[in-house]
Amino acid sequence: MPDEDIRTLNRPQAARTVPAQPRSTAPEDPRPQPTWLGPVLIVGIVLAALNLRPAITSLGALFEEVRTGLGMSGTVAGLITSVPALCFAVFGVTAPRLSRRFGPAAVVCAGMGAVAAGLLIRPFADDAVGFLAASALSLAGIALTNVLLPVIVKRWFPDRVGTMTGLYSMALAIGTSLAAAVTVPMTSALGGGWRTGLLVWAVLAVAAVLPWLPITAAVRRERRAAASGSAADVRADTGPKIVRSRTAWALACYFGLQATGAYITMGWLPQIFRDAGVSAGTAGVLLAVTMVMGVPLAFVIPNLAGRMRNQGAIAATLGLFGLVGYSGLHFAPAAGAWAWALLLGVSNCAFPLVITMIGLRAKSPAGVVRLSAFAQSVGYLISIPGPLLIGTLYQHSGGWDLPLTVMAGLLVPQIALGVLAGRDRTIEDECGMRD
Q1: What share of the chain is helix, strand, coil (3-state, %, to 5)?
Q2: For residues 24 and 390, what is the distance between their CA atoms, to the nearest angstrom?
Q3: Are 322 and 411 in contact (CB under 8 A)?
Q4: Contact indicator for 419, 315 with CB cutoff of 8 Å
């Protein structure tokens, strides 16, 4: 289904909260939308966002038990930890083509179905190969949804990009933190092994599929009613390559560096604290504090960014919080542990900022899908070596001085790229793309 076949919900002029947000030039649809569509879309977006990370963080919580249960070698275990970013990059590239063919709502519905199927199959795998294949199925669904949720927001809520991006970013942060925090105690409470602990999260994924079924059906009916405009819309989606846009490259590299920092933090922060003399239990709580900071800020930052023409100041501020946090870990890791955890939690909120900027740096939903796919695919590829590099430096240097210096150093180009990506311009203007 072509992207332009889906019409935005009509919003009153007085309700606009994003004055800088460019409007699509697509013609308005004279036919009224079903009254239930808006509320169901909001529910669908929130449930989809809740499922974008539990497949990863629930596995992290039980990874040692999974390794032992499936007899994984160290090499295979390392491969599994690298698979998420790789899948996000590889499968995210396919999102624009699938969106043009079937429509973003249908692809998100299928993506949630893939997440649910992978989570249902994974606990019953008998070996590492089957486990990896089922995990890849879930991650493919997550990759498609990652790319297309900004498109859904742009399409149906063009005057509330900041608010809606904040809502699903907050839901994503809640899902991430919840799976990390409750998987182990929930597994114990259920009296099962790691298979039970992983299987529980399939229930949430199945629930996320349900609202997208009527949404997809409504959009399909809309497409049939507007079938006469399909060919023109497909032609309008062609144009110069997005690689010509400096803003697209700035967003992609900014996305990659913020993802690098987030993966390093999630993977190594507890070890940094433990090596400084903090107990294992406290180190885990400190990581949870860092992750939980993303829940309220994931809603606040997109709303603030959506009201600004230039988001560079926010990107610079978040980067400075990270620089202070890494400096604190270098000089007084144990004494100021809680402060450093909080500061890094604020810094990691560059994710909802970059997702908001993706929605603001394109004029049309068709532009957003191209930009989202490009920025996230390139960004996740950039993020893959980061955690491995930090681990290698830690192993060979025998401490955290050099790794922390590198981690802080990466924030300098991240700040510069955030300032570039935050400028008030669009990829269509830079590339001569048609709306």
Answers
A1: 80, 0, 20
A2: 43
A3: yes
A4: yes
Q: What is the DSSP string of 192-249?
A: --HHHHHHHHHHHHHHHHHHHHHHHHHHHHHHHHTGGGHHHHHHHT--S-GGG-HHHH
Tokens of 136: 């890849």
120: which residues sit within 8 A by CB, 6+ positions away? Answer: 199, 202, 206
Reported as a single tens digit per residue, the pLDDT across 256-275 is: 999 999 888 877 888 889 88
Give which of 245, 255, 247 is closest to 413, Cα–Cα: 255
Two tokens at 39? 């509320």
Is the dihedral angle over the CA atoms 264, 266, 412, 147 positive or is it negative?
A: positive
The predicted-structure confidence for 103-126, as pLDDT tens digits, reads as follows 899 999 999 999 999 999 999 999
Give the CA distances from residue 407 to residues 255, 260, 428, in Å, rounded to whole numbers and listed in that order.
15, 9, 34
If you search the block for the tokens 């987030």, which residue do you land on?
Answer: 262
* Residues 34, 51, 156: CA angle, nearest 5 degrees: 30
Closest of 125, 284, 111 to residue 198, by C-alpha? 125
Instruction: Judge whether 9 and 159 are in contact, CB under 8 Å.
Output: no
**Cβ–Cβ < 8 Å for 39, 182:** no
Across the chain, what does the average pLDDT equal?
84
